[in-house]
Amino acid sequence: MNANDDQAAVLTWVKSSYSAGDGGQCVEVAASGSAVLVRDSKRPDEAMLNVSADQWATFVRMAARD
Known about the structure:
Number of strands: 4
Order of helices and strands: HEEEEH
């Protein structure tokens, strides 16, 4: 287990409301200080994205556009 695993274990992960309930294509996010971590819920022990809170806010704003 590495430092990322330790950090990920204590965070509160939230699954995307767009994720299917059948276990497919699920994305989870967790806030960690000034960063937002993003991972594949089917593979929680594998690599995760680490983006700044500002970058995440920009992503969410752009994704919400019609």
